[in-house]
Amino acid sequence: EVIDREVVNSCLHEAYFDVANPESLVRSFLASLSSCPIDFRKEAVRNVCCIGGTVEFIPNFERKFLKALADAFNGPSNESSHAFRSLRPLLDEKEGCLGIVNPLPFSPGIFAWTAASVFGSTGTLPIDQTVHKQAFLSSQSNDSARSKEAVRGFL
User: Fold this and answer.
1) Residue 29: helix, strand or coil by DSSP?
2) Structural contact between residues 73 and 83, judged by C-beta atoms closer than 8 angstroms
3) How many CB atoms sit inside 10 A of residue 8's CB?
4) Of 15, 48, 96, 121, which one has the fewest beta carbons inside 10 Å?
């Protein structure tokens, strides 16, 4: 069965670009930005990177994202435009400093892996939040042995 293209577009719009939806990407972006310290906000919006497979899946994702942000402030007055009004100067189309890096120098689908690799190489993770290969393999073999014993005991 084929799903109607309009239904898919409507669902995508609601999930990603509808500022009235508290679970949407645009609303989450605005909420995250408003939770940043005021002095950091300007720098945070200068080089926004849209990453992940969704960016590749939805044509013109970055343009739709920018339009949704503009609509949040330039459309009819609503709860969202009031809740995030302090962000308007940063995100204004003409005078704001919002910058979306597009196109990225590599596929948006692999950017998260690249960023995670760079972060992991910095050595800033606390030791209790890391898993070394030997420890992982050891735990897997112990879990496997326990599972086999449990199965033998059950049979």
Assistant:
1) helix
2) no
3) 11
4) 121
Q: CA-CA distance, 96 to 99, in Å (whole number)?
A: 9
As separate numbers, helices (DSSP H) first and strands (DSSP E) second, the chain gives 9, 0
Phi, psi of 57, rounded to the nearest 5 degrees? -75, -40
3-state secondary structure at position 48: strand
CB 44 within 8 A of CB 36: yes
Residue/partner pairs of 101-107 with CB below 8 Å, 24 or more apart = 101/47, 101/48, 101/49, 102/50, 102/62, 104/49, 104/51, 107/56
Residues 93-139: tens digit of each pLDDT? 677 788 887 777 777 777 777 777 777 777 776 666 666 777 777 77
